[in-house]
Every structure is written in C-alpha cells, then in structure tokens.
C-alpha cells in the first residue's frame, strides 16, 4: 500500500501523465465550447472562467491561470476538485488509468 506521504505525489504524477502528457500549457477544446486547461486538463464548464457568463468557477480563477508553468494555481484548483463529492472521479483519466492501480512505479528512484 502507498504511504500517505508518497500517495499524493503518485496521484498527481499519474493524473498529469494521462491527462496532458505533463504539458502545463495543454489546451483542449470540447464540442460544447468548454476547454480543458493545463497539466490536469481542468474543464471550464465548472472549475474555471473563460469569461463565459453563468459558469460556476468553483476554483475562482481564470482558465488561463491553469496554463502557467508555475503549477501553484493548478494544484490549488485540483485540490478543490478532489474535495468535491466525486473527488478524483471527475477525471476520466483517473478512473481509467490510475484508480486502483499500483502507482509506485511512477516515482521509483525518487527520494521523498
């Protein structure tokens, strides 16, 4: 089992790989006009603002803030998402590629 200290980095590394390939500037357009933004591909329908009216903007930031190579805003927003009822389940990549998997290989050789 993954220790609590190592668990969070493992989750973030797996999620970042399968959502954006570790690309902090990744931007993907959905058919409904929303965007998936940054290394964790955080969607503008609920989590951030693209200046579209009537968007919840739960993270209280602009989606463009999530494209910054300084990941502070992105991590803060991702942490807010994980505190929601679905938690990591909001990410399809998490459900299909990371959830229930042994993630220790993602940080082999890293010293925490």
Automatic annotation (TrEMBL):
<dbReference type="GO" id="GO:0002080">
    <property type="term" value="C:acrosomal membrane"/>
</dbReference>
<comment type="subunit">
    <text>Interacts with ASTL.</text>
</comment>
<comment type="function">
    <text>Sperm surface membrane protein that may be involved in sperm-egg plasma membrane adhesion and fusion during fertilization. It could be a potential receptor for the egg oligosaccharide residue N-acetylglucosamine, which is present in the extracellular matrix over the egg plasma membrane. The processed form has no detectable bacteriolytic activity in vitro.</text>
</comment>
<dbReference type="InterPro" id="IPR023346">
    <property type="entry name" value="Lysozyme-like_dom_sf"/>
</dbReference>
<keyword id="KW-1015">Disulfide bond</keyword>
<comment type="similarity">
    <text>Belongs to the glycosyl hydrolase 22 family.</text>
</comment>
<dbReference type="InterPro" id="IPR001916">
    <property type="entry name" value="Glyco_hydro_22"/>
</dbReference>
<dbReference type="GO" id="GO:0003796">
    <property type="term" value="F:lysozyme activity"/>
</dbReference>
<dbReference type="InterPro" id="IPR000974">
    <property type="entry name" value="Glyco_hydro_22_lys"/>
</dbReference>
<dbReference type="InterPro" id="IPR019799">
    <property type="entry name" value="Glyco_hydro_22_CS"/>
</dbReference>
<dbReference type="Pfam" id="PF00062">
    <property type="entry name" value="Lys"/>
</dbReference>
<feature type="domain" description="Glycosyl hydrolases family 22 (GH22)">
    <location>
        <begin position="59"/>
        <end position="77"/>
    </location>
</feature>
<protein>
    <recommendedName>
        <fullName>Sperm acrosome membrane-associated protein 3</fullName>
    </recommendedName>
</protein>
